[in-house]
Design a protein that fits this description.
This protein is mostly helical and 268 residues long. Helix content is 74%, strand content 0%. It is globular.
């Protein structure tokens, strides 16, 4: 490892050792899981910022925070005799080699799609080489973690199902499904069926996820981009109103809509 990486490991071990930090010493795999999720999302946010502005300073910092989580878990693993950071790195390197036979072997996978199509076989080869005992699953969908964000889970579930032929033939069929789900949602609203309304909204979102998959769009990223766009345009409304000495509360919807359209035009 590099000098700086070795220093990071040493600092983490010192924090966990007797006489170190009481909070760090109390942490477990499970207690750290929430921070791992938070740091991951903050890193994703920094990626969007870097993409939009070209400034990678925040991305570098967030990647460091994310790396700390890996080191933290590995330090706990070493203490428990489960694994070390070296074993984590070694396992990842082996995995990369096994999943890239077109680079480290004789396989002919010229296109990115060829690699994706061959992914399941590569994973099976990896398990065979590692000797890892595969958990018996009652469904292929059990490979998709329940803890995934809903949009990502929906994408992974339908991708798994599509690989065995359970899928629409084209995007146009999904548009028909979306129209069907909208009609069912309207009916549920008209009948004031609250439980059914929630279910139909879920069905509609699920259909849109399928459309995104067919169009090779990652829905979680797409929605995240739209959320950021909404933030910017709404902030523009707030700033414009503030300049004129007004607030959101004493403005009409028509006035806010006009400012929204100005923000939209400025972005274009």
């Amino acid at each position: 490892m590099s000098k700086s990486f070795d220093e990071l490991i040493a600092v983490m071990e010192r924090l966990r050792a007797p006489g170190g930090c009481p909070w760090d010493a109390e942490q477990t795999y499970l207690s750290l899981s929430r921070y791992l999720i938070e740091e991951t999302y903050e890193t994703v946010d920094a990626i969007h910022e870097a993409t939009e502005t070209g400034d990678t300073a925040n991305l570098k910092e967030e990647l460091g925070d994310l790396l700390l989580q890996v080191v933290f878990h590995s330090t706990i693993g070493k203490e428990r005799g489960d694994f070390t950071i070296d074993e984590v790195a070694e396992g990842t390197a082996k995995k990369l080699v096994l999943r890239h036979p077109h680079v480290f072997g004789d396989a002919n996978l010229a296109r990115a799609q060829d690699v994706l199509d061959n992914w399941d076989k590569l994973k099976a080869d990896e398990r065979a080489v590692s000797g890892k005992v595969e958990k018996v699953k009652g469904s292929i969908l059990e490979e998709v973690p329940l803890q995934f964000p809903a949009l990502l889970e929906g994408l992974k579930l339908t991708t798994k199902a599509a690989k065995v032929g359970f899928d629409w033939e084209n995007a146009e069929q999904i548009f028909d499904k979306i129209a069907e789900e909208i009609a069912e949602l309207r009916t549920a609203i008209e009948r004031k069926e609250e439980d059914n309304i929630s279910e139909e909204i879920g069905d509609l979102l699920f259909a849109v996820v399928n459309l995104a998959r067919h169009l090779d769009v990652e829905p979680e990223t797409a929605l995240n981009q739209t959320n950021r766009k909404f933030r910017k345009r709404f902030k523009f409304i707030e700033e414009q109103l503030k300049t004129s000495g007004r607030t959101l509360e004493d403005s009409t919807l028509a006035e806010m809509d006009e400012l929204w359209n100005k923000a939209k035009a400025a972005a274009k």
